[in-house]
Amino acid sequence: MPVKPNKSKIRIAVVGVGNCFSALYQGFAYYEEHKEEDVPGLMFKDIGGYAPTDIDVVAAFDVDRRKVGLPVGRAIFSKPNCARIFMPEVPAGPVVQMGNVLDGVSDYMLAQPEDEAFRISDAKPIDIVKAIKDSKADILVNYLPVGSQEATEFYAQAAIDAGVAFLNCIPVFIASNPVWEKKFVDAGLPVVGDDMRSAFGASILSQVLQELAFDRGFSVDFHQQINIGGNTDFNNMMVQSRLASKKTSKENVIRAQNDLRGIPVVKNSLFAGPSTYIPYLKDNKVAYFNLRLRGFGDAPVDLDIKLSVQDSENSAGVVIDAIRYLQVARELGVVGALRGPSAWTQKTPPQQMTYADSKAACEALAKRKLL
User: Fold this and answer.
1) Chain segment 145-190, per-residue pLDDT in tens
2) What global pTM score does this model have?
3) Claim to verify: residue 154 and residue 181 sit in the same structural domain
């Protein structure tokens, strides 16, 4: 087993105390209670000597008045969060501090019903760089709403200025943007991104289905993935202007399997993206797939699949891994966008890989080796 340095915890700061962070924070408490058990939901129990319980939240930023000023252990259960509560008793944690709004909140979300909306605090934004430094964080995790281009770039720069690694869980292209990657390289920092792909979600299922078809000698004439859900992420994405990067990111997962094999993508042959918001579903995400293949003698194969998951918990196990990859990379002196961990944990990494190749790169880093 790899041995971690003489340091007990990975210290993280988080921007966006929403559903995804709620599941993640509850998960820290859950796995603390199930340390010795063979419990599901973790791809790697040990990464570079770090267990999931070796992560501490030391700072958190949000802009909603129902969260700012509360300890994170209470804020994660505040509206409009609707993630499943599987650990009602969690540590209080640090107090949520007022972040910078910028483009993180749309007029549409301000106009939604109270339980489904964002409500901006009238508190004054703090000095984010100073707060990160004061917290002695190692990593800043970005959980901002989809479409937060300006805000994500602000926090990415804050991570650089504060000298911490950056984990970008949303479809604003940072790790996959050469200009931004160079900034992290120049600062001597690692970054993982962009747009987290869940442990057993729509994107990873689309990838392995596409890979399977190609590896078995089939042509893929059409690949459709439609997603519906009832959390604030889906509600926020009802604003079409905030959706473009998300749709691109989801389709990148499918398109990459063609590109890796030199198979042209035929126009209108794929579609992946959110379809609509249904409040009744809350944090339940439902994805529908239709693949139309051709095999031996052009024989048709038509595949329909329905996937139903708890959206936020499905993401949390991946984020727990990505945090640990970033910390190990920091300790090994690896800078810039981490290729293997980004391809394994994100929809739009700087370099797309096959499932097997990205997993192998992660397994190597988990053993403190580099491929």
Assistant:
1) 999 999 999 999 999 999 999 999 999 999 999 999 999 999 999 9
2) 0.95
3) yes
Residue 286 sits in a domain of what CATH number? 3.30.360.10
* Number of domains forming the structure of the chain: 2
How is the chain split among helix, strand and coil, in percent rounded to 5?
40, 20, 40
The residue written with tokens 């994805």 in the block is 287
- Helical residues (DSSP H) of 177-243, grouped into ranges: 178-187, 202-215, 232-236
What is the DSSP pairing of strand 284-294 with strand 300-310? Answer: antiparallel
The model's pLDDT over 200-233, given as tens digits with 9 standing for 90+, comes to 999 999 999 999 999 999 999 999 999 999 999 9
For residue 156, give every residue at least 6 positions away whose Cβ sits within 8 Å of its Cβ, in sequence order, or none.
142, 166, 168, 174, 180, 183, 191
Beta strands, E only, the chain: 10-15, 55-62, 96-98, 139-142, 165-168, 190-192, 219-229, 270-277, 284-294, 300-310, 336-337
Q: Are 55 and 320 in contact (CB under 8 A)?
A: yes
| Residue 206 and residue 338 share a domain | no
What per-residue confidence (pLDDT) applies to 4? 64
Measuring CA to CA, how many Å separate 43 from each of 47, 209, 335, 363?
10, 20, 24, 10
**Alpha helices (H) in 94-137, listed in sequence order:** 107-110, 128-135
Q: How far is CA 199 from the centre of its chain?
A: 10
- Which neighbouring-strand residues pair with 191? 166, 337
Q: How far is CA 218 from the centre of its chain?
A: 31
* 168 and 302 belong to one structural domain: no
Residues spanned by the domain of 237: 202-311
- Per the document, the length of the chain is 371
